[in-house]
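Cross-posting from the modeling subforum.

Setting up a comparison between two proteins and wanted a second pair of eyes on the formatting. Protein 1 (sequence, then structure tokens):
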Amino acid sequence: MPKSLYDNSDITQNSKQLDVLKKNFPNCFDKNGNFISHKMEEIVGNVGLELSKESYALNWLGKSYARLLANENPRTLLKEDKEHNAKEAHKNSQNLLIKGDNLEVLKHLSNAYSESIKMIYIDPPYNTGGDGFVYNDDRKFSKEELSKLAGIDLDEAKRILEFTSSKSNSHSAWLTFMYPRLYVARELLREDGVIFISIDDNEVAQLKLLCDEVFGEENFVANVVWERAFSPKNDAKFFSESHDYILVYAKSITELKLDKLDRTEEANNRYKNYDNDSRGLWISDNLTVKTYSEKYDYSITVPSGRMVNPAEGRCWSINKDKFQALVEDNRIWFGKEGDNVPRLKRFLSEVQQGMVPMTLWKHKDVGHNQEGRQELKALFNDKGYFDGPKPLRLMKQIFKLSSLNKDDLILDFFAGSGTTAHAVMALNAEDGGNRKFITVQIPEKTDEKSEAYKAGYNSIFDITKARIEKASEQLGDTSGFKIYETTAMFE
């Protein structure tokens, strides 16, 4: 039998070919950069070749349909809101607010904004059941049409159509909903781009595997735990949940640059100057390591005359000569009485002017859900028209880490209350930047019994639009925004 067209041994011999494949098919590589041939065959379609190996993969009912949706041409047109866009405040704006199904919008954006987005933040439906996520697809395929288009049997086509034509909050439905959106979103990211995705416990495992599939395992950056709440809920059945997750993926891990966080006063306060060193504040650091080497296992006589050795199984991190040089440079601390195990002095003046972010984000540093709600209420006369808006401080930290230049483009295609657009304008107001936002929101109806509906906000989109307008006025932002919406091709 002939060797597979995508055989790993051939491809890895050609670095240019490998680079092209990594750029366009990151899901065909594992986290170590090894090519997985059968995943390529899945994408381009089975051409009658037998697979010589089995490999770990994410599969679900509807995956074939999700691929079909990802590659299907848009079924709508984009129509501008001419009355709004003609206003002086908006007519020259590069900011966009788009009303419609975000999959359709993403496909429209892929023409004008391919590989143009520096950072994407999304807060998609969490699929919690009840009033949470439901999949309700208005595409009208027969089971015969779907079977032919997706290359699946009639029974599978029938089962897929059952959850796409009625309300469903299964994992399969959620994955089918998310896959094409992430797939197209990846194409919008620049090579140095990054995406942050908020999610909860219910779908974080599935989302991680899905992002590995779409972005490639090697482009995983972090799974951040955000402390979104700080008060326990005593009516919780087992545990009072106080966190969400934020998954971070790069378009290309080799091109990604993340900034460090500003040093905090708390971090700087750890530095002291017990010996009045002319080089200023310092902190002492352990001089031993667990990786044992006989060469680095030696006795040290401290100033008091006591002899010390590393703990059993450990050794010093430097050799004798280096240690002596540090002593002569007054970079070793033996304690105020000269009797302690030696430690290395690290000076504040010499440390990097920034802090590597941890994956645990405390509410005191980046805000919490109640803070986000209060920020929204402050714009709407103390009315809370939207549940669970993200706090601006959370977005500020994400922006900081994303290494945004002052003219970069940020996308949020689950706009919700409009926090991302608000945060972009707030950051521009702080540093004089000219960053642009693209936000997308489906005109999901508000409950007729809700305060939002009673106040004239008939859809979530109306709240998004109002927040951007009110935040812009509050900040003195004059960049404006244009409005477009998806419409049927033939009306």
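Protein 2 (same layout):
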Amino acid sequence: MRSGIADYSADLLPHLAALCDLRVVEVPGLPLADEVRARWQPVAAAATGEGGRLPLYQMGNNRYHEAVFELALERPGVVTLHDVVLHHLLVEATLGREDLETYGRRLTADHGWVGELTARARRWGELGQAALFGLPAHRGLVRRQRGVLVHSGWAAGMVSEADPEVEVRVVPMAVPLPPLPEGGAGFRERLGVAAETPLLGCFGFQTPIKRTERALAALARPELRAAHLVVAGEVSPALELEAEARRLGVADRVHFIGFVDYRRFEAAIAACDLGVNLRYPSAGETSASLLRVLALGRPAVVSDYGHTAELPAEVVAKVPVGEGEVERLAAEAGALLADRARLVAMSSACREYVARRHDPARAAAAMLAACAELAALEPPGEAASEPRAPSTLVWHRVPGELEVEGAAAPWPEGEARRLEIRLLNRGPARWLATRHKPGGVMVELHWRRSPWHPPVAARWLELQRDLEPGGERTFELEVRRPPRHALLVVEPHLQGVAGFNALAGPSWKTVF
């Protein structure tokens, strides 16, 4: 398939086979490459688990994995969740066939009353994105397995957050370290991009969560006025990137080349100075396309969120999601492109990082060690208790109320006041305590001279305990008004994302 998981599996198979008695299972209804069939001689799905073997499933969040999902339910083992969220797969397998009844039943079984209400909203035509990422729809699957494998601490946190009884282990992703390609110059020549022109690259299937339109907007800023951008990968029908490039006036500097074979994909990466790999929200995935960019010695600008927030500064530059994202992207990319010595150093660090952390032989050994440990465990089984409400680790719509007492005008400059801040959770999700990173909530209080001036005298208030739906928390503190600053702002923040006002949440401000 045109699938990163298919590429990953093909890379991993020989390394697994060197360490265990490996048998490959053919998934019914999907094509299989002739060379895979000839080398591995796969057995039929009905033979899965025979002879005391441990089934090891590779699970993704799209319709190609529907048969894998059903087989794992029928013959449980260990599941590698390449995407922690499987809600999109559920939608394709049910609503895509106008089967609202099955969608509602499975979502309710996985998420209790929250799932039931979400399915009811779908019945009346609500098609928002929040539930697709906030409700992972994997509970029925993972509780049948002996354990779950993921590729990042972020993903492990998402699985444990959804269900603490599920055993989860983090293993490296298998990414071969290829020789440095030599086709970059020729690729640039075919694009009509000069050797000295800065070239950015967005790689892989372009979906709304890849935020490619932010890269286009950054290209229109002064810091990147000389740069070009190549987009290598199929573009989702939900996006109109070429029209957006024309609207922004950068169409002559953007090159859409669509889906390409791996040789041309490598050449496109080699031709670029810098990758762009933004992502929000996250389905818990680790970006294989980003790791392949790093493996070819190209650093990247990434979102400071999810898996990419875990990457070292030696190989990526990070930009926050939300307010100021485009400006920071342009600034970070522009600074890197202007510092060739730093780019060269990062290039070496990228390859060293992938070789050290994601070597396929090391990944296979870690996977087998985890499987050996999990094989001795019993699955949690069907849960009798109601699933917990989702939390701010995975749910990014955070409606609430914010009240501030003690800040009535007039408030003379230099005078200290004792304020009481009352925060109420009016949404369906738990607001995690500040100690949770990411997903933790904290409250910022700061002064400004005007909405356009930077904040001063900022104070951060920590949420000491989780705030359940319908709950409230009160903070008391002494605040002194600084000279000349007449705008007071109080706003909760979600670590790793943005201020709550960008997430349908509360904020409070007053002018003196």
